[in-house]
Amino acid sequence: MAENGDGLGTVPEHERILQEIESTDTACVGPTLRSVYDDQPNAHKKFMEKLDACIRNHDKEIEKMCNFHHQGFVDAITELLKVRTDAEKLKVQVTDTNRRFQDAGKEVIVQTEDIIRCRIQQRNITTVVEKLQLCLPVLEMYSKLKEQMSAKRYYSALKTMEQLENVFFPRVSQYRFCQLMIENLPKLREDIKEISMSDLKDFLESIRKHSDKIGETAMKQAQQQKIFSVALQKQNNVKFGKNVYINDRIPEERNEVELKRGFEEEDENEEEILTVQDLVDFSPVYRCLHIYSVLGDEETFENYYRKQRKKQARLVLQPQSNMHETVDGYRRYFTQIVGFFVVEDHILHVTQGLVTRAYTDELWNMALSKIIAVLRAHSSYCTDPDLVLELKNLIVIFADTLQGYGFPVNRLFDLLFEIRDQYNETLLKKWAGVFRDIFEEDNYSPIPIVNEEEYKVVISKFPFQDPDLEKQSFPKKFPMSQSVPHIYIQVKEFIYASLKFSESLHRSSTEIDDMLRKSTNLLLTRTLSSCLLNLIRKPHIGLTELVQIIINTTHLEQACKYLEDFITNITNISQETVHTTRLYGLSTFKDARHAAEGEIYTKLNQKIDEFVQLADYDWTMSEPDGRASGYLMDLINFLRSIFQVFTHLPGKVAQTACMSACQHLSTSLMQMLLDSELKQISMGAVQQFNLDVIQCELFASSEPVPGFQGDTLQLAFIDLRQLLDLFMVWDWSTYLADYGQPASKYLRVNPNTALTLLEKMKDTSKKNNIFAQFRKNDRDKQKLIETVVKQLRSLVNGMSQHT
User: Fold this and answer.
1) Which of 319, 508, 578, 723 is most buried, most CB within 10 Å of its CB?
2) What is the Cα–Cα distance from 712 to 704, expressed in whole angstroms?
């Protein structure tokens, strides 16, 4: 019962689940089915039974539904089969009808198409005629453009393009050929620009190659114009009686001959000298400028032209490394620069805006700075004055040429003043060698003259005036040596050479006079003075040569006034002018004389030292020889002969040399007595030494050089005389008693000197003490010496303490 009760309870639940399964979506079946398994045991089996029963019910219902509609389905199928037969009949009829219509309309269609085609052709022909009448002018103009391009008439071609674009193309702009033409015009313009630019590049290359020829032609023309102006000025000066400064080395007649020859050469070469237009075809520049102007790109062309010309300017301004070696290197450099700026000046005047005055001035200032730097650097390597002079002439022609084209050249003339200083330096170096050669070839002897002809030759070379010499009969001698007229001539040659550089510098006569005098002063004070000093200091120059050098400098000094007159005659500037520079020959030759005098004193003392070194005294002799030493007599004889040569010197020089020699001899003899290596001196040696000093005093008293007053020369030996008298007389008591008194008999004897000599004599006495102890006089003398030595030492020590 219980089981039956349970079964009855589950049946409604299964029905509900089946209803949910039928009514819900299959995605939600899972939870519903899970509830079947969650119920009581055997529920699954019961559910399956219930599910089978439900399925059977549905099958029955489906079967009933099919049975109900089956007859209607069969009737519909039967009707469809009847309609298919009728449709097939209808299709056959329609197809047949269509075929008959097609066959009937074929002829009409053909005729209609022919009519349509004819009318279209007629309309097209009319349209084509109209359009061709509109296009023919365009095509004719375009054909004309092509012909102009082929004929290289680019400027006309650009004008034709403007007409095509502004007038003709707007009429036919709808056609493709017009678009092609329009698209082709920019390409044609670019082709024209490229061709024009190529012509311009060829032109630039051409003027770069011809710039030296252009510059050479321009410089020739400027030089000829200058020659003509100078000739005209000279004619005017002669006409109005003006005095023209003429280089007296080149006569005026010679200048006129050379000028005439220059004009003749000018006439001969007149046909050969071409203008810049003859040498260069400027048409590419004009064409290119017009083309770029038409294209509205004139600024681009100007910038390109200026940029390329600046590059060419830098190349032209770059010199060759060996330019300074030859004048041709400088000439090529100048002609290229002149050619460059002549072309620029021509472009400036024949074109508008391509180059401006401001541009050319900027380019010239840049070039001028570079030119000056190059010339300053390369001219510094020039050591040949002739090359420097040729460089100066080239710079002058270069400056005059460019000045004629309107370029400022003042800085070039300022540079010439720097080069002038360098030119003077090269001249000074050259003349230093000339002076050295003259001094080397000179025999330093008075010039001998045997007849009047030789006398006139010397006078013509050197302005010498001496009435006494003129009165003398032949043969006779000039006091100076052969180097004096040669030096005078070379100084004049130097003035000529310096004058050459001053010409054509556009300077006044006053400035030229000042330049000549300053350069001559440099020659005298530096070059000639240095050569004289070097000559004086040479070891092989002896006393006789030094005496002649002093005489030579005296005459050269006197000739300086004639050199001033010589410069005055050249420049026509009076020496009395306030700003006129004076020649410094007086101080130059005076310094050389002083150096020669000093060298005479030095060499004379050296010669005395050589004789003194030959002295061979026996300092331990007991008795003197009774006569003066041989070396001293030779020395005195040498001095007598030398002082005879000094008679040609100024008196003061000879007296100073004589006094210096005596003082040096006195000092040398004193040093010989006091020599530290000399340890012992006997009384016999002192007596022998006294004989030598007596000969020196006799020599001094014989007045070897005139002009000394009284015994002035003998005072050179006063120190030796008083010292020797003190030892010869042995008057030590008087010396010690009167020491320090102004009236002392031995005022010139120094205690140190006396002590040194006395100690040497004391040592000699000790050496001979073995024999002296048997002689009472010798013993007394020895004691006296020791006593005097002690007193002298105390006197010397007192002097040291006082000091």
Assistant:
1) 723
2) 12
Q: Which of 714, 694, 564, 712 is nearest to 632 (CA)?
A: 694
Cβ of 354: how many Cβ atoms within 10 Å?
A: 21
Average pLDDT over every residue of 693-707 = 89
Q: Is 303 helix (H, G, I), strand (E, B) or coil?
A: helix
420/369 Cα distance (integer angstroms): 19
Q: How far is residue 337 from each of residues 207, 208, 410, measured CA to CA in Å?
A: 12, 10, 17
Long-range contact set of residues 791-798: C-beta below 8 Å, sequence gap at least 24: 791/732, 791/736, 792/736, 792/751, 792/754, 792/755, 792/758, 793/755, 795/736, 795/739, 795/751, 796/751, 796/752, 796/755
**448: which residues sit within 8 A by CB, 6+ positions away?**
475, 476, 477
Read off the pLDDT of residues 462-490 as tens digits, 9 standing for 90 and up. Answer: 888 888 888 888 888 888 899 999 999 99
Residue 706, preceding bond cis, omega within 30 degrees? Answer: no
Alpha-carbon distances of 764 from 544, 777, 785, rounded to whole Å: 45, 16, 11
Is residue 733 within 8 Å of residue 789, measured between CB atoms? no
Per DSSP, what are the bridge partners of residue 447?
478
Nearest one of 389, 579, 411, 371 to 503, comparing CA atoms:
389
Which amino acid is residue 655, in one-letter code? Answer: Q
**pLDDT tens digit string along 218-263?**
888 888 887 777 677 666 655 544 444 434 333 333 344 344 444 4
Q: For 620-632, write each residue's pLDDT tens digit.
A: 888 888 888 999 9
Task: Name residues whose C-beta falls within 8 Å of residue 772's C-beta, 6 or more positions apart in sequence.
Answer: 765, 778, 779, 782
Q: Which of 435, 397, 437 has the alpha carbon at shortest distance from 416?
A: 397
Estimate to the nearest angstrom the gap between the alpha carbon of 661 and the chain centroid.
56
pLDDT of residue 3: 42
Q: Which residues contact 800 (CB under 8 A, 6 or more apart)?
A: none
- H-type helices in 151-175, by residue range? 154-163
For residue 492, give both structure tokens.
């004049």
Write the DSSP string, 720-775: HHHHHHHHHHT-HHHHHHHTT-TT-TTTT--HHHHHHHHHHHHHHHHHTHHHHTT-
Q: How far apart are CA 802 and CA 740, in angstroms?
A: 14
CA–CA dist 261, 613 (Å, integer): 74
In this structure, what token pair is assigned to residue 787? 């006593």
Q: Is the pTM of this model over 0.85?
A: no
Average pLDDT over residues 199-209: 83
What residue has token string 């709808």? Answer: 174
What are the structure tokens assigned to 746, written together?
A: 């031995």
The answer to whether 650 touches 597, Cβ cutoff 8 Å, is: no
